């Protein structure tokens, strides 16, 4: 008996993205900043120290500056513009607060935060980290590590999903059921679930995980196979995978001529 997968991929996302602020609506965010002491890098081309502040939204999410030469917000309501530059997004995934200070190799969140901010500005070509005279070796190392990892990353903000194998599978009789091999749902989503829905499946057909447990909904990372009762006449059917997946994004907010653009990254708390 053949169990047919009649398409390479039919992925209808019930919830395509979990974003900090859904892109189908316009949002604004009130942001404010807190100063902290630093004298950790000096720009030779700008002839001045490079400084930043801790910027947070009203609900505690950390934001980063997109323009090194403008002021930080002080309670202004900044409208959303959309997704951030992909290079900035990759910096954020490899920097603070997605990575803890300890994961980044430092004990002080300020060093982790400052290094991430430098990497963001470097990605936007606001500064060049090779032009900086670093006065804090921890910051120098973390900044360069974040930049290197972001440069090597191929992570996308958009969700991708595929099912393998894509070719038709032949079910093999084992005890009371014909069994297919394992199917794998591959996705870059951080978390989520997916359902497998059959079209024209015979009575008694079921989807099971690697442990043989029958399920209607699987977690990201779980594989599945199809079981069909052995008394079923020869034939075939198709199925589709419907995902409800989540993936974090970075959102840019519009500033003013004197207040810089802000970007809301992935959730994080100090």
TrEMBL record:
Transmembrane segments: none annotated. Keywords: Signal. Residues 62-151 form the Thioester domain. It comes from the Bacteria. Residues 1-28 form the signal peptide. NCBIfam families: TQXA_dom. This is Conserved domain protein.
């Amino acid at each position: 008996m053949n169990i047919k997968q009649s398409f390479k991929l039919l992925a209808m996302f019930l919830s395509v993205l979990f974003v900090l602020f859904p892109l189908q609506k316009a949002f604004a965010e009130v942001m404010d900043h807190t100063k902290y002491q630093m004298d950790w890098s000096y720009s030779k081309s700008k002839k001045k120290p490079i400084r930043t502040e801790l910027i947070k939204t009203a609900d505690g999410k950390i934001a980063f500056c997109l323009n090194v030469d403008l002021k930080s917000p002080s309670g202004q309501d900044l409208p959303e513009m959309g997704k951030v530059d992909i290079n900035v997004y990759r910096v954020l995934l490899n920097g603070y607060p997605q990575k803890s200070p300890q994961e980044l190799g430092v004990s002080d969140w300020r060093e982790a935060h400052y290094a991430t901010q430098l990497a963001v500005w470097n990605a936007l070509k606001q500064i060049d980290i090779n032009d900086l005279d670093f006065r804090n070796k921890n910051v120098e190392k973390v900044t360069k590590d974040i930049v290197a990892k972001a440069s090597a990353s191929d992570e996308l903000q958009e969700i991708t999903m595929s099912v393998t194998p894509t070719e038709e599978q032949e079910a093999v009789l084992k005890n009371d059921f014909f069994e297919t091999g394992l199917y794998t749902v591959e996705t870059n989503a951080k978390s989520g679930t997916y359902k497998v829905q059959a079209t024209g499946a015979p009575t008694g057909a079921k989807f099971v995980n690697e442990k043989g447990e029958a399920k209607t909904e699987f977690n990201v990372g779980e594989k599945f196979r199809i079981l069909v009762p052995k008394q079923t006449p020869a034939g075939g059917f198709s199925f589709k995978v419907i995902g409800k997946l989540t993936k974090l994004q970075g959102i840019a907010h519009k500033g003013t001529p004197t207040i810089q653009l802000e970007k809301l990254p992935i959730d994080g708390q100090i």
